[in-house]
Amino acid sequence: MLRTLIFALSLLSITAHANTIMNMKARSELIDAILVERFETVLPDIMNRTGIDMWVIMSREYNEDPVLKTMLPSTWISARRHTMLVIYNPGDGKPLERLAVARYAVGELFEKAWDKEAQPDQWQALRDIIEQRDPKKIAINKSYAFALADGMTSSEHNDFMSILTPRLKKRVVSGEKLAVGWLETRSALEMEHYPILTQIGHDLIAKAFSNDVITPNKTTTDDVVWWLRDQTRALGLTNWFHPTVSIQRADNEAFDQIKAFSKRPGENVIRPGDLIHVDFGITYLRLNTDQQQHAYILKPGETDAPEGLKAALAAGNRLQDILMSNFKRGRTGNTILKMSREQAIEEGITPAIYTHPLGLHGHAAGPTIGMWDAQEGVPTKGDYPMYPDTAYSIELNAASNVPEWGKEIRIMLEEDAFFDGKNVTFLDGRQTAFHLIRSE
Length: 440
Known about the structure:
Creatine Amidinohydrolase, six-stranded mixed β-sheet, 18 strands
């Protein structure tokens, strides 16, 4: 009965976003417009920055290279047959050449460049295209450090290298930095819409963390999780991970790092005096959010959370400020992590920082700024530098002693932000006060 009521309430709240979320046709048109903009404004700069003049990307149907999947038109759900894409930069400011060595043109984004009737061998057709353009560097998606830049399969790599002449083989390089640059860089049109997605996520959390959804002593954490899943679907959106809702309360249980980050909390009844936490992310227009906030369940007679909890939230906000103040173009994730932790500890904060890039993937490509179990830094991915026009999920926690509870708790925060090369700003603000839920 309770779940039925919760679902009914979710349907009532859909109208709040009815004029914000586009229908599928409008989304399709916008996604394709964003892709055109990215190919015309983002990719040329990254190819110039990395010194790569040809990029070869390929996928067999349902075994997509993560990069290729971000280049497909909105109406392509996956690669078709064996899709081979070639992007060539002729230099001198000329437009990039985008070719599909495939049975089909890839929408209007990649020109069909293979006539099977004239050349039955697709691999030979690819070799001819490469030899005609005689590139200085041929990038392929092979990477040990970045999974998203490691999309070429071993069999494809073997076949690809076998068709090249010795002269061209020497020009094959890893496209790691090119792939990461393409994935992490946001375009102007994307950034017009990203804040809207972030706001939708915040609104859903605010609704979930209210008396419209939670009845203390009856509602469980699992009820809230499935409300979020149902509401996301009802709005025509998807989740890129299953949400979690967890509880910290005035008991003898100590915070368990392993349990908090690797074992999803089980179903638990939400009670007055609880501090509840949500981790929630949605996908829209091929972009993703990743957000964490807290709510406090007021005890009978209370009008606000205990001062110790509010002070703990303030410490979490201060840790966000410290971390973001250290964002600087060219600075590596590991350097930002080290500087931020040292500053926080000097200010009396007990920090844990595990911030990651955000965009076309939830845990996206770019500089890793700590992991919850690697506060000393992350090899290779943490050594990647920060570039402008990139988005991040500012994810961290601050440990604080709460006198009213006689124990240490963690304020675990996550908010989405954009770095323009000079300044970093939240896409839709951040939590600075608890959501409050009445128990009476």
